Each structure stands twice: as structure tokens, then as C-alpha cells.
Amino acid sequence: MAPEVISQHGYDNKADIWSLGITAIELAETRPPHTELGHPLKALMKIPLAPSPTLKEPEKWSDEFKNFLKLCLSKDPSRRGSAAQLLEVPFDCPFVTINPKYTLSDELPNPTGPIHEELR
Q1: In CATH terms, is domain 3-119 a member of 1.10.510.10?
Q2: Greatest mean pLDDT range, 2-11, 15-24, 81-90
């Protein structure tokens, strides 16, 4: 949950951007930030007061991915990236490209049309 939502300062699409950053960390590290605290409510109370979460082992990750997280996890919502800005951040998503021989179009039954052609 975004710091401004926890602090009851409102909810908008910037809170969703925060959640995207947290989800990216969870995908990268297999655990969300602050799990070491033991209880989800402890983590919830820490979010507004602590610095923005970061990767535990940042050296394992590309500068582009770290920049993406930085844009998502700015504590100040007005400085947080927009969805359009995040789409412009160039990085290979390791969660999607695990097997480069496998594509989404492999799962589509009899794909036809322009969108399916783009997937191939």
C-alpha cells in the first residue's frame, strides 16, 4: 500500500504505480519488502516512516530495472513516474524472458490477425 494511502492523504493512479514497484521487488526477490518484520501490520506502519524500499542485492540487477523501481517508489506521489513514463524505461524483464524460445503466441489457439502477427 502506498505511503499516502496509509497516511490517509488520498488515493489515485500514483498509488497503483507504487504497488507496481512493490510487486516488481516481490517478483525479483520472491518476497515483498519488510517481510523480516514478521507481521503485515508492522510492515504497514513502517512504510510511511521508512525510506522507499530497495532491492536487497542491487548489484544483481540492471541499472534500468533499478531506475524503474526508483520511478515507481518515490515517497512523494508528485515525483512518482506516470504509467506513460514507466513504459519508456528500457529494460528486459527477467520474469517474462526466462525462456526466450517460448512466447505468448505459443499459448494462443490458431492465432490470426495483426496483433497475433506482432507476437510472432
Answers
A1: yes
A2: 15-24
